Amino acid sequence: MSRLLSVVTADLQTLFRQEVELAKAEVREEASRAGKAAGMLGGAGFAGYMVLLFLSLAAVFGLANVMDGGWAALIVAAVWGVVAAVLYRKGRTRMNTVSPKPEQTVATMKENAEWARHPTR
């Protein structure tokens, strides 16, 4: 009986260690995905800023030849506002795919708990 108990205890310890390793792997994967999405949002912000700065100036000066400079600046700003909104939505959509909860670990822990309650099933 004691040998059986020690085998079960060893198996439970191994199972627990494996579950912890699985949780760590899942968290690392999700953190990597979150980092990539955050990098894209940051890159979109910086690119939007640079584009807004240089192309806006060129467009304002070009349109100022046809209309008042204030209206030209307003039109250019509106166009780049739409571009920034599109980039933001894409980054936000990708960020929403990131799950901080280790789904696979939770599922296997539920299976383990069910097995522990009814080991003969």
TrEMBL record:
The keyword Membrane applies. Keywords: Membrane, Transmembrane, Transmembrane helix. This is Nitrate/nitrite transporter NarK. InterPro entries: Phage_holin_3_6 (IPR009937). The chain crosses the membrane at residues 38-64, 70-88.
